[in-house]
């Protein structure tokens, strides 16, 4: 069994609204990421994926956020660390690639200065050694003229090149865990394929564990070994990628997969999941997916189902099995 790099247990993240109210964005989330695997965290916008990743990195404002549960990263309990200790872990133990690379990079700093800043913050390398590592990192992510690129500003590079720079910065201190939040958003399909291939190369060559946050099931199928499906702040299903696509168990997962277009399948209109993710301030009672679920019964609106094991490495949170749901439809 590979080393467990990240273990999240019963994570709950709340945001302050007004003077006294708190809104729960993520509730009871648990999962692991092991060395040398890519784990996909998927779901619609607003389901809590990015909130979860920022909670792991402790990047939420302390004044407006409450985080409970346990986050174990590199054997250390993240929520018990001081700000200085957490800053030391970022870059050395875990790094994050943010979506929208053009926005994540400082527009008034040259690429070389931004890379040097990231390396200097976490190492004792000399100025010359920092420069050599910067060049080496840009080469490692497939940038053809690294010396010239170091002198460029972000606006002088394409979106794909900026994303490669972001990956180089994230990997510059050789962290064991990489968190990638929608790393291929706004990139065309050719560049997207290159970025995914680069991430797979990093995983293979460095045995890096990667938590990939995305809403794109095509990306998940391409690169992930295991998938965690989130809905309205809860994990509703987790399984190896092949198992999830062949035998999705939760109605929400089934709806997501059914809505993806497939080559060779001609349909007049793709299926869609009715409704939208519930408002954080007005979560429904019972199962949070019940208002959108075609199988929902009265029990679903009264009971919030637990995440239970239904097969080896496969968990799901639904009160009814797939067979029971099929029988429900047959009797309608």
Keyphrases for this structure?
332 residues; alpha/beta; 8-stranded mixed β-sheet; 4-stranded antiparallel β-sheet; 12 helices; 35% helix; globular
End-to-end separation: 46 Å
Contiguous uncertain segments of 5+ residues: none
Radius of gyration: 21 Å
Strand residue content: 15-25%
Question: What's the number of extended β-strand segments?
Answer: 12
Q: Shape, please? A: globular
Mean pLDDT: 90
User: What's the total helix number?
Assistant: 12
Account of the protein in words:
There is one protein chain. The protein is an alpha/beta fold and 332 residues long. Helix content is 35%, strand content 24%. It is built from twelve helices and twelve strands. The strands form two sheets. It has an eight-stranded mixed β-sheet with strand order 6-7-8-3-9-10-12-11, sandwiched between helices. The chain has a four-stranded antiparallel β-sheet with strand order 2-1-4-5, with helices on one face. The termini are far apart.
What is the topology?
Layout: E1 4-17, E2 21-34, E3 38-42, H1 49-57, E4 65-73, E5 76-77, H2 83-92, E6 94-97, H3 101-104, H4 111-122, H5 127-140, H6 146-150, H7 159-171, E7 177-181, H8 189-206, E8 209-214, H9 217-223, E9 226-231, E10 234-240, H10 241-246, H11 251-258, E11 308-311, E12 314-316, H12 322-330
Parallel strand pairs: 3-8, 3-9, 6-7, 7-8
Antiparallel strand pairs: 1-2, 1-4, 4-5, 9-10, 10-12, 11-12
Helix pairs in contact: 4-5, 4-7, 5-7
């Amino acid at each position: 069994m590979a080393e467990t790099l990240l273990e999240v247990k019963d994570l709950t993240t709340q945001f302050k609204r007004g003077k006294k109210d708190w809104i729960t964005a993520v509730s009871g989330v648990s999962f692991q990421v092991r060395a040398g695997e890519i784990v996909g965290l998927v779901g619609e916008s607003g389901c809590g994926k990015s909130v979860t990743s920022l909670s792991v990195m402790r990047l939420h404002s302390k004044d407006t956020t409450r985080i409970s549960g346990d986050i174990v990263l590199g054997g250390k309990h993240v929520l018990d660390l001081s700000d200085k200790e957490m800053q030391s872990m970022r870059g050395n133990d875990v790094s994050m690639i943010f979506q929208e690379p053009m926005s994540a990079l400082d527009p008034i700093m040259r690429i070389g200065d931004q890379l040097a800043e990231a390396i200097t913050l976490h190492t004792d390398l000399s100025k010359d050694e920092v420069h050599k590592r910067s060049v080496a990192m840009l080469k490692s992510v497939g940038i053809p003229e690294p010396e010239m690129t170091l002198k460029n500003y972000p606006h002088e590079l394409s979106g794909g090149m900026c994303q490669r720079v972001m990956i180089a910065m994230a990997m510059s201190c050789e962290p064991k865990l990489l968190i990638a939040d929608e790393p291929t958003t706004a990139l065309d399909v050719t560049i997207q394929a290159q970025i995914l291939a680069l991430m797979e190369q990093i995983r293979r060559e460095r045995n890096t564990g990667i938590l990939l946050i995305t809403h794109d099931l095509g990306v998940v199928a391409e690169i992930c070994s295991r998938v965690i499906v989130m809905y309205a702040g809860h994990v509703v299903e987790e399984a190896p990628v092949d198992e999830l696509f062949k035998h999705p168990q939760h109605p929400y997962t089934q709806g997501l997969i059914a809505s993806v277009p497939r080559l060779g399948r001609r349909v007049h209109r793709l299926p869609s999941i009715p409704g939208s993710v519930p408002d954080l301030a007005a979560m429904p009672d019972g199962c949070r997916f019940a208002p959108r679920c075609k199988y929902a019964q009265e029990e679903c609106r009264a009971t919030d189902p637990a995440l239970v094991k239904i097969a080896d490495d496969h968990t799901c949170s639904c009160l009814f099995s797939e067979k029971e749901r099929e029988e429900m439809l047959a009797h309608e």
